[in-house]
C-alpha cells in the first residue's frame, strides 16, 4: 500500500531506520442514520471507513513524544513531554493526540515512556467523517499496543471521547470514537449509546453503494453550536424529568414524547428534543428495515432524518441542503442525508450501482451551478477498526 510505504519512508528520514518501527491505521466513519442521538442516550448506525489516518511509530525510552504529520508538513516536528499535560485546545491536530495521552493518565493508566511518530491522512479534515476521532483512536491504539495490552478496543473508544470532552472541550457523544475503534469490514454498528451494547449488521448492499459527497465547506460556528445543541437537549430532558421518570431522551417512544412535550418550557429546546426522540426511533426502524432487505424504507428514513436535522435540530446548512435535495430527485438514489455534526461536511447517500456514473455527474453539475463550489464524491466501503497493520 503506497501510503504505508510513504509514512514509513518519511519516518526513517525524520527519525532514523533503526529499531522496532510499527505501522497503525485508524479509520474515519460515516454515520448512515442516527445523528446527534449519541449524547442523548439513543441509537446510532455508523460504519468505519477505509479512509483514515496512518502512522509509523517507534517507542522511546524517555518521556518525550515527537510527531510529524505529512498532511500538515509546515508544522514541522512537534515535540513535548507526556508529563504534566493540562487540558487545552489550540485547534491543531496534535491536541487530539495530547488529549488521549492525558486521558489515559487521568483514568489510572500510566504510560511509561513516549514515542516517535509520523502520520498521514487520506481522510479529508473538516468533512464530517470524524477525522478527530480517527486521530484519537490512532493514538489510543498505539498506546494500547506499545504499553497497555490489557486495554480493550471499547476502552480506547471511551478514552477518545473522554479526551475530546475534557481536554479539547467538545461535548461529543461516543459514536465517532466507537466506530473508529470497533469497525468491522462490510458491516455497520448498531450501537445503543446509553448502554454501549452493540450489534454488527451486515450491509448487504448487493446492487447499491454508499456514496459520500463532501460539500467542501465547514462553517466556523460548528464547535460552539454543537455544544449549544447538547445543552439545549439537556434542558429539555430536565423539563421532562419534572413530569416523568426518564434518564435520557433516548428512553422515550414517540408516543411518550408527545404526552410530555408540553413540559418543555423553551420552544427551541422542544425542537431539539423532538429531533432526538424521533431520530432515535428512525434509527431503530431503519436497522430493522435493512435487516429485512427493505432498502426503500431505509432510504425514506434517511431522507426524514435530514429534514429533522435541518428543521428541528438546525445543524444543516445551505450547501448540505442542496446536496440532499439534489440527491432526492436524482435517478438511482434510494436515500440521502447530511452526516456528522453538521454546519458543513458531507452527505451520505445509498445509490444503485447502475446509476453511479450518472448520479455523480448530475450531482457535480447541480452543486456547482447552485453554489459555485466543486464537490468531492467517493464511494465508501465499511472497514475494520483501528489497529496495528505491520
Characterization of this structure:
By secondary structure, the chain is α+β, with helices and mostly antiparallel strands. It has a domain at 2-203 and 384-388: Ribosomal Protein S5, domain 2 (2-Layer Sandwich), CATH 3.30.230. Helix content is 42%, strand content 23%. It has eleven helices and 13 strands. The protein has a six-stranded mixed β-sheet with strand order 5-4-6-3-1-13, with helices on both faces. Helix 3 crosses helix 4 (153-166), helix 4 (153-166) packs antiparallel against helix 5 and helix 6 crosses helix 8. The N and C termini lie close together (11 Å). The mean pLDDT is 96.
Which characteristics define this entry?
Ribosomal Protein S5, domain 2, globular, 390 residues, alpha+beta, six-stranded mixed β-sheet, 11 helices
What's the short story on this structure?
With 390 residues, the chain is α+β, with helices and mostly antiparallel strands.
Mean pLDDT: 96
What is the H-and-E element order? Answer: HEEEEEHEHHHEEEHHHHHEEHEE
Largest sheet: 6 strands, mixed
| Shape assignment | globular
For the secondary structure, the number of strands is: 13
Number of helices in the DSSP assignment: 11
As for the CATH topology of the domain at 2-203 and 384-388, it is Ribosomal Protein S5, domain 2
What is the rounded distance between the termini?
Answer: 11 Å
Low-confidence stretches at least 5 residues in length (pLDDT < 50)? none
Q: Helicity, in percent?
A: 40-55%
Strand order of the largest sheet: 5-4-6-3-1-13
Architecture of the domain at 2-203 and 384-388, according to CATH?
Answer: 2-Layer Sandwich
User: Rg, please?
Assistant: 21 Å
CATH C-level label of the domain at 2-203 and 384-388: Alpha Beta
The chain-level structural class is alpha+beta
Oligomer: single chain
- Our estimate of the beta-strand percent is 15-25%
Amino acid at each position: 500500500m503506497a501510503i504505508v510505504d510513504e509514512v514509513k519512508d518519511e519516518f526513517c528520514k525524520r527519525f532514523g531506520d533503526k529499531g522496532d518501527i510499527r505501522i497503525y491505521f485508524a479509520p474515519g466513519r460515516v454515520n448512515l442514520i442516527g445523528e446527534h442521538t449519541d449524547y442523548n442516550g439513543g441509537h446510532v448506525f455508523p460504519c468505519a471507513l477505509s479512509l483514515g489516518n496512518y502512522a509509523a511509530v517507534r517507542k522511546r525510552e524517555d518521556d518525550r513524544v515527537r510527531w510529524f504529520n505529512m498532511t500538515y508538513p509546515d508544522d514541522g516536528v512537534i515535540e513535548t513531554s507526556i508529563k504534566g499535560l493540562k487540558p487545552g485546545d489550540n485547534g491543531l491536530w496534535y491536541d487530539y493526540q495530547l488529549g488521549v495521552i492525558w486521558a489515559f493518565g487521568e483514568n489510572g493508566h500510566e504510560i511509561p515512556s513516549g514515542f516517535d511518530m509520523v502520520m498521514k491522512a487520506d481522510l479529508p479534515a473538516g468533512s464530517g467523517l470524524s477525522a478527530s476521532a480517527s486521530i484519537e483512536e490512532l493514538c489510543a491504539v498505539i498506546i494500547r499496543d506499545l504499553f497497555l495490552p490489557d486495554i480493550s478496543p471499547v476502552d480506547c473508544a471511551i478514552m477518545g471521547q473522554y479526551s475530546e470532552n475534557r481536554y479539547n472541550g467538545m461535548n461529543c457523544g461516543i459514536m465517532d470514537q466507537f466506530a473508529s475503534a470497533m469497525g468491522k469490514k462490510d458491516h455497520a454498528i448498531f450501537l445503543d449509546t446509553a448502554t454501549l451494547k452493540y450489534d454488527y449488521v451486515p450491509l448487504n448492499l448487493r446492487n447499491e453503494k454508499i456514496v459520500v459527497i463532501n460539500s467542501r465547506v465547514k462553517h466556523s460556528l460548528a464547535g460552539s453550536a454543537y455544544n449549544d445543541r447538547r445543552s439545549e437537549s439537556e434542558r429539555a430532558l430536565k423539563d421532562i424529568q419534572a413530569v416523568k421518570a426518564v434518564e435520557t431522551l433516548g428512553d422515550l417512544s414517540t408516543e411518550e414524547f408527545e404526552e410530555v412535550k408540553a413540559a418543555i418550557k423553551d420552544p427551541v429546546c422542544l425542537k431539539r428534543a423532538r429531533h432526538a426522540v424521533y431520530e432515535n426511533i428512525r434509527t431503530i426502524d431503519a436497522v430493522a428495515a435493512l435487516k429485512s432487505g427493505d432498502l426503500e424504507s431505509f432510504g425514506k428514513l434517511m431522507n426524514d432524518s435530514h429534514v429533522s436535522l435541518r428543521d428541528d435540530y438546525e445543524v444543516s446548512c445551505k450547501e448540505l441542503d442542496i446536496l440532499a435535495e439534489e440527491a432526492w430527485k436524482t435517478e438511482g438514489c434510494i436515500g440521502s442525508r447530511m452526516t456528522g455534526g453538521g454546519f458543513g461536511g458531507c452527505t451520505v447517500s445509498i445509490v444503485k450501482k447502475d446509476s453511479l456514473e450518472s448520479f455523480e455527474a448530475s450531482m457535480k453539475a447541480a452543486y456547482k451551478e447552485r453554489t459555485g463550489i466543486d464537490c468531492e464524491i467517493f464511494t465508501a466501503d465499511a472497514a475494520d477498526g483501528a489497529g496495528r497493520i505491520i
